[in-house]
Amino acid sequence: MLAFLAILGIAIIRLDSLFAAVMLTGIYSLVAACLYIEMDAVDVAFTEAAVGGGIATLLFLSTIALTSNREKSGNQEKSGSQEKPGSKNSLPAFIVVMLTGAVLMFGVSDIPKFGDSSAPAHQYLSDRYINQSPQEIGVPNMVTSVLASYRGYDTMGEVTVIFTAGIAVLMLLGRGFRSNTRRTRVKTDTKSSQGKRSTGE
Amino acid sequence: MFAVTTIAILVAMMLALGRALLGPTLYDRILAVNTFGTITVLFIAIFGFLTGRPEFLDIALVYALINFITTIAVLKFFEYGDMGRSSLEQQESDI
């Protein structure tokens, strides 16, 4: 499964046709969902399949529909148009990516193994949540009490981030929309005023 | 029994993946994605039985729905060339 992921990633980078790359990203998220299910994280897998396989593919497709279907290849770049200078291999970017990957792998080495019964989460945390959260919080649902009270600051930060992203998207979309309507309104205004002027004369 | 089926599904996954990677035309790739989604549904179902929890079947059903919607959208994209918004008025009603 992990080999599938690696093959798909390399193929997506190598491909020239953007549409094929979009199709491959859909398969990529399906494979990732299978991996999550193997690791018993059914809810994460479900989100991955719905967002990665469904919505992200549709968003990519509509972007392609609005722009162009093919990536500018290296030959076109040499022959004249200089629109995409980043397609040549750059060594500093490679070094930065490798360094970040090394740091992340170093961080992973501290995480307890998958299904490890001596992990801190299984030692005392789960018991405490299960036994004492009804008395401490007073909410019957255990997940809700963990999410809204024990890690309430974390949840508040997440909600703030999502809210900010939503506002930014709305501002970006709404600006183009408003300028469009204003332009059409100005056009109709000038037309009507011209019409009035011509009738007045 | 279930293990053999799982291995067979993995092989089928590999074949669909090969078609998606090699596929000369775009339709090959669309078909590969659709097939891969179906194989994913099968894989989830058989994995649920393999680990002794058949309640994974519900999740597999919802995966089938997602797969269907994605394929419909892709084909619509091919038929109309865009996502169905062509004029300015339609955009306004969308937002």
Q: What would the keywords be for this entry?
A:
heterodimer, A: 201 residues, mainly alpha, Four Helix Bundle (Hemerythrin (Met), subunit A), 0% strand, B: 95 residues, 4 helices, disordered C terminus
Task: Report on the architecture of this protein.
The complex is a heterodimer of chains A (201) and B (95). Among the domains of chain A are: 1-71, NADH-ubiquinone/plastoquinone oxidoreductase chain 6, subunit NuoJ (Four Helix Bundle (Hemerythrin (Met), subunit A)); 141-195. In chain A, 79% of the residues lie in helices and 0% in strands. Chain A has helices at residues 2-14, 18-38, 42-66, 74-79, 91-108, 120-136, 142-150, 152-200. In chain A, helix 1 runs antiparallel to helix 2 and helix 2 (18-38) runs antiparallel to helix 3. The longest helix of chain A has 49 residues, at 152-200. The termini of chain A are far apart. Residues 73-86 and 195-201 of chain A have low confidence and may be disordered. Helix content of chain B is 82%, strand content 0%. The model of chain B is unreliable at 83-95 (pLDDT under 50). Classes of the chains: A mainly alpha (201), B mainly alpha (95). Chain A binds chain B through residues 4, 7-8, 11, 17, 19-20, 23-24, 26-27, 30-31, 33-34, 37-38, 42, 45-46, 49-50, 53-54, 57-58, 61-62, 65-66, 173-174, 177, 180-181, 184, and chain B through 13-14, 17, 20-21, 23, 26, 29-30, 32-33, 36-37, 40, 43-44, 47, 56, 59, 62-63, 66-67, 69-70, 73-74, 77, 81-83, 88, 91-92, 95.
Helix run count of chain A: 8
- One letter per element, helices H and strands E, the order of chain B comes to HHHH
Main sheet attributes: strand count, strand direction, barrel closure of chain B: none
| Quaternary assembly | heterodimer
What is the C-level CATH assignment of one domain in chain A?
Answer: Mainly Alpha
Reported CATH architecture of one domain in chain A: Up-down Bundle
Morphology call of chain B: flat
Derived structural class of chain A:
mainly alpha
